Amino acid sequence: MLYDLQSLLDERNRTLYEGVASQLPVVLLDSGNDLWTAHLKNGTAEIHTADASWPGACFAHELLHISLRLRGLTCPGYVDNENIADIKEIVGWLFNILDHFKVYPEFLALGYTGDQFLADSDPSEVCERLDHNASELERRFIADLPIDPLALAMPIGMLLSPPPSQRWRYESRLKRVSPPGFFEDLEALLLEWQRSPTLNSSHTFAMFFKLCGYQRIGFSATNTQADIVVAGNL
Asked: Model pTM?
């Protein structure tokens, strides 16, 4: 669904929009599905819109993603000497989680509520994925089969990602199949990132993989060796 700009603006997101629009054009596009997304493309901010119960809040959410990019938040480059399967997808997933941890406090500060943070279809999709992942982890745990810490960390990260509305439903299940302290250590890492003023995520990325037992992987905000943060050196 494509919205008219004026129907998306309200007293809570107008200043944010004006700040972004003063730096580059904001282009609204129909997503063609039920997802809201935002991208920087060819010198413009593209925001793809969908039908929503609170479109103004969804618009603010996407504007905050763009605002963070303009302030310098980028996905770091990496050197993977662990040969981790699907590493590109995992890095992209983790960046999205870290992005949302930064966006959420700013979203609340605008005056919106936690239940307006996600678009209509997102909570049910998250629950479906958490149900699937938790069930598979429990099956392996009961059968005394090995569990890749990354396969455990990803649903934990998904659960902890704002807003925390589904935590009560899955926390005990994921803690049960986790090594002692693993859930708590991941949560502490994500909250430390959220509270820190830095937008350089290399250290957080490296610590995440270190907690998962991967030492020979490094991350760089500049895609150079000059500032690479290696998990095993932390």
From this structure: 0.93
Q: What is the pLDDT of residue 68?
A: 97
CA 30 – CA 227 distance, rounded (Å): 39
Pick from 77, 234, 84: nearest CA to 150:
84
Range of weakest confidence among 99-103, 129-133, 190-194: 129-133
Element holding 104 (H helix, E strand): helix 87-109
What is the arithmetic mean of pLDDT over 127-134?
Answer: 91
Q: What is the pLDDT of residue 197?
A: 96
Name the residue ranges covered by the structural domains of the chain: 5-71, 77-233
Give one DSSP letter per residue of 120-179, joined into a string: TTHHHHHHHHHHHHHHHHHHHHHTT----HHHHHHHHHHHHSSP-TTHHHHHHHHHHTSP
d(CA 126, CA 112): 21
| Helices and strands: H and E segment counts in the chain | 9, 6
Output the pLDDT for position 50.
Answer: 92
CA distance linking residue 150 with residue 176, whole number of Å: 16
Please tell me whether residue 18 adopts helix, strand or coil conformation. helix
187: buried, middle or exposed (CB in 10 Å: 19+, 13-18, 0-12)?
middle
Tokens of 140: 């392996």
